[in-house]
């Protein structure tokens, strides 16, 4: 009976319904759905189109997507719903309200893990590493990371590696560029610096990115490629990238090849370090994260010690977390200094006052530089947006409903430009807002849910201290010796790139001019590091 009814319906459509009729009906349905969506939308929020969701609005503002998003949030009162393309499985809310961020990252933390949507897209590159883990796996790695990164030995070791890299490679490179008058992409140089530094801290190896001639480094190239292809999954419909992965073609095939190269390097390094431990019985002479984790006493939940797979994934996550963020932050910092000579003068004076210690034992040295870096990241956060996925239905403090499996995107870029949080001068680069009446850095009293650059709550970045040490040492050393001159004509070209990290779209071309009087703000290898918590 049912089969006969279907056959009758098909014959009716063939005889009486034309393709043009179907097109008109579909267009009318689309228009009615669009009108209903617009009328029911939150005032000031972007249009959510039938089928396409928020995608058309994003494409219309690709050139200024971060500023457009911040303005849209301001018009909508700090929060609005979003929906991706049909079949993409992405929906939820976007917010810049500090109370909502605190609710997600702290108050109701258990309900907002990274979630399967995130983990699936980074599975090939990160495996079960801390950057891609939830639950007990995340807690175990968090404990290990906190214990090792906050130990006195690692702090001293990391300060030494930073100083060695700055004095031994970064400054000689800039001296050569200064003497020749050649221009260089500062963003690329800083990416190479932080990659070398993070590889030394994580694996105890020299990646060689800052070697003479700025060579192509296969591991660095593979890592960058694997990161870009993993991120591409976030803007590609799942049915498309999963089909390509199944067939082993296109970008998914390239991702497999890139991640294989990254993992082979990591596996080889872990294997060689394990062999060294078996042969000598100790890694006492090494202080990098891999060696410290490998030689540390087994934790209660892992009586046989950390597996090679655990160590590999942990170190790869550490490199991903630290490679791009500090370099991007420094690039925007130098860009802002170029257009604010008064701030540069005060930073340089701060460096001169520091004498020979960039990172003194009390952390009181170079507070103005510290404030300027913090202010730069307020305006240009290295990670402009992040998200968590709800396990169960919830209601945010501002009354916004969130359904299970929806995502809450907290828009760090907009949070740093919110008048309600930072006042009418929120768009101004003013490091003084982070200093107290005595000129000391007072940012430690600021709510991390208002300034979420380093995340907040239980997932507060364990590498925050390391990042500040790295940025302050590099910035102080460069500014003490050189004037960083941005090539003219870049005002329009220097824009953020649409990515999970706030790269400059076309880099930052600069020249280095030697200062008449040089200062020495970088600590010697093994020098002291920041002791206070920012």
Structural summary, described in words:
- Belongs to the cytochrome P450 family.
- InterPro entries: Cyt_P450, Cyt_P450_CS, Cyt_P450_E_grp-I, Cyt_P450_sf.
- GO terms for molecular function: heme binding; iron ion binding; monooxygenase activity; oxidoreductase activity, acting on paired donors, with incorporation or reduction of molecular oxygen.
- This protein has one domain (87-514): Orthogonal Bundle (Cytochrome p450).
- It contains 19 helices and nine strands.
- By secondary structure, the chain is an alpha+beta fold.
- Helix 10 crosses helix 12 and helix 15 (341-353) packs antiparallel against helix 16.
- It starts with a helix and ends in a 20-residue tail after the last strand.
- 41% of the residues are buried.
Q: Quick summary of this structure?
A:
This protein has 534 residues and is of the alpha+beta class.
Quaternary organization: single chain
Shape: globular
Number of H/I helices = 19
Q: Mind telling me the C-alpha Rg?
A: 26 Å
SSE order, as H and E? HHHHEEHHHHEHHHHHHHHEEEEHHHEE
Read across the widest sheet, the strand sequence of neighbours is: 1-2-7-4
CATH architecture: Orthogonal Bundle
Mean pLDDT: 85
What is the CATH homology-level superfamily?
A: Cytochrome P450
What portion of residues belong to β-strands? 5-15%
What name does the CATH topology carry? Cytochrome p450
Q: What gap, in angstroms, lies between the N and C termini?
A: 74 Å
List the uncertain runs: 359-364, 519-534
What is the total domain count? 1
Main pleated-sheet profile: 4 strands, mixed
The CATH class is Mainly Alpha
Based on helices, strands and strand pairing, what is the structural class? alpha+beta
